[in-house]
Amino acid sequence: MSVRAIAAGCRGVLKLGAAGLIVGLHCASAVALERDIDPAYRLSAEAPGTAVERARLGGGEECSRHRAEFHGGAPDEQQRAQTREVLAYQGLVEEALAMRARSIRLLDELRDKITHRQALSGRDLLRLNQGAAAMLEQRAALYRISLAHECWLDEPVPDDPQAARRQATGIAMSLSAALVLYDNYLSVISLYRSDPVLRQHLNRADSGFALPGGELNRIAASFASPENRSRVRRALMWLEEHAPAGALEEENGDEAFRYLAQLIDQSPSRNVVRHVRPLEFVGNMLGMFSTLGADAFAGLSKDGVHVSSLLFGNAVGLVESRRGKLDARPSVLAKVAATARAGDILLEKTPFRLTDAFIPGHWGHVAVWVGSEAELRELGVWDHPVVRPLQEKIRAGRGVVEALRSGVEMNTLAHFLNVDDLALLRQDELSHVQRAEIVLQALRQVGKGYDFNFDVESTNRIVCSELVYHSYLHLDWPTERRLGRVTISPDNVAVRAVGGGPLDVALLYRDGEEVESGRADAMARLVQAQVVRLARR
User: Fold this and answer.
1) What's 426's DSSP letter?
2) Contact (Cβ atoms closer than 8 angstroms) between residue 298 and residue 311
3) What is the mean predicted confidence (pLDDT) over 223-251?
4) CA 510 to CA 474: how far, in whole Å?
5) By percentage, how much of the chain surpasses pLDDT 70?
C-alpha cells in the first residue's frame, strides 16, 4: 500500500462527525453541541474536552507529561518505547472487539426478555451494570491514549526520517483510538440506546458501580460533537499530507504505523459517517443517533452507504457487510461434514469482516474439527475426562473448536461456514493415538479466554492459530515476530500444506466455489510468498 493509498483512505473518513480525538469518559454537553464551529473546522485554542474531562484526565498537560516520560530519551530508546506502546494498544483494541461481542450477546438476551414482557432478573441487571462499568473504563483508557498523543499534531515535522516516522505513528495511534470509540458507539452503545427500557436503566446513577446519571446521554452527545469532528479532521488531514514515505510497504515499512493505518482505514464507521453530517442533528441529541440501531441504517442505503445489511450479532463481535458465499448452502455443508475427520484443521477467509484485513496473509481464521460421537468412540476417548463434560455439545453437532474474541468455544459446521473461502487440512499418516491426542488437546482449550497478546508461548489464553499450535504437538510450525511478539498466523498453518509439507488439502473452496483439482497448487498461490519463504528456512 502506498502513501497515496492511505491518503485515499483518509479522505474516506474526512467527514467523520463524532468521536474525534477528544472523545472520553464525560463528553461534550448539550450546550457544547449547540455552539457553531468554523466552516473551515479551525480548532479552538482551548484544551480538548469539557471541564470535567480536563479535570479527570489531565487535559492538554497529559500529552506533554507523556512525551517527557516516554519519548525523551535517545532515538533508539524512543523507538522501543513507542513499539511497546503500540503493542499494548493492540491488546486494548482486541479487548474492545471482545467487549462488543459480549455486549451484543447480552443485548440479545435482554431484548428477548423485554419483548416477552419478562422482568429483568437481578443477575441480568448485575451483568448490565458490570458491562457498563467495564465499557466506561475502556473508554477512559482509549481516551487517555488519544489524549497522550494528540500534541504530536502541534510539532513541526522533523527533518530526521526516523523522528518523523515516530511522530506519524503517535498521531495515528491518537486518531485510531478515537475511531475505535466511535465504532464502539455505532456497533454497540447505540443499540442499547435504541431500547427504551435499557436506555432508561443505563442513564440512571448506580453508586455501587460508580455509574453517574445521564452517562449514556453524554456519550451520545460526544458522538454528535462538531468539536470532536474538527479534531478528527485535523489528524486525518495531517496523515494525508505527512504519512511517511514507505511506511506502509509490506517489506520495508514500519509495522506499527502500518497496523495503525489499517485500523483507521478499516474503521466500520467510515462509510456511515461519510454520508451523515453531525451538524444536521447537533440540536437534537435525542434524534437519529440516539436511537440508532440496525434498522436505522437502512435509510442511508439510498445515499450509497451499504449498511442496511450490517450484522451486529455475529460471533466475533465485528461488523459484517454481508453473509459469506458458503453460508446456508446445504450441498456445501453436506460435503464438508462428509469429508471432515476428527482432528482436521479448518481454515477460512471472510473479507467482509472488519479485521480480516489485519491478519497477515490470505487466511483469516483457523479452527479444529474434533469429530462426532461415533468418531470419538472409535478413537477410544468418548469417556475421557476431557470429553465427558462436552459430550452434549458434540452430540448437538458442535464439533468445531475455535478461538473467538469471546473465548474458545464449540460451534457447528453450519455456523462456521459463513465464509467465502474454506480449506480442510489433514495429516493422513496420523495414528489413532496421535489423532486422539490432537482432539483432546483442542478440547482442553475450550473455555479459555482470547489471547490479546498473540503469544504462542502462553497457554492460559488462546488465539485462533495458537489452537492448532497447541493441538498438533508433534509438528513444527513456522512462527513470526510481529510487534515484538512471537506469533503464528493462519497462513503459517496453511503453508504446511504446500511444498511437500506434512498436511494435505482434503477440501478447498475459493470465492464460494469448490476447487476440485490441483488443490495443493491453488493453496500455494493463496499463501503469501514471504510466509512460504519463512517456512523453508
Assistant:
1) E
2) no
3) 72
4) 29
5) 70
The pLDDT score that the predictor gives to residue 269 is 66
Higher confidence at residue 251 or residue 306? 251
Closest C-alpha among 96, 282, 275, 72 to residue 176 = 96
- In 332-447, where do the E strands start and end? 345-349, 365-369, 400-404, 407-411, 421-426
**Integer Cα distance of 466 and 459 in angstroms:** 9
Q: Is there a contact between 473 and 506 (Cβ–Cβ < 8 Å)? A: no
Cβ–Cβ under 8 Å, residues 227 and 28: yes
Contact 463, 450 (CB under 8 A): yes
How many other C-beta atoms are found inside a 10 Å radius of the C-beta of residue 328?
11
Q: Which of 319, 189, 322, 323 is nearest to 266 (CA)?
A: 319
Taking 50 as the threshold, does the pLDDT of residue 29 lie above it?
no
d(CA 315, CA 405): 8
Q: What is the pTM of this model?
A: 0.61
Closest CA to 353 of 292, 411, 404: 404
Q: How many other C-beta atoms are found inside a 10 Å radius of the C-beta of residue 73?
A: 12
Q: How many residues does the chain have?
A: 537
Which residue did the predictor score with more confidence, 511 or 2? Answer: 511
Block residue for cell numbers 511444498: 499
Q: Grid coordinates standing for 286?
A: 435525542
What is the full DSSP assignment across 382-405? TTSTTTGGGHHHHHTT--EEEEET
Residue 407 pairs in a beta bridge with 404
Q: Which of 324, 383, 378, 359 is nearest to 510 (CA)?
A: 324
The helix (run of H) or strand (run of E) holding residue 132 is: helix 122-150
Residue with the three cell numbers 458490570: 130
Helices marked H in 151-189: 161-184
* 3-state SS assignment for residue 345: strand
Angle made by CA atoms 136, 140, 145, in degrees to the nearest 5: 150
Using a 10 angstrom Cβ sphere, with 0-12 exposed, 13-18 middle and 19 or more buried, the burial of residue 488 is buried
Q: Which three cell numbers stand for residue 204?
A: 440512571
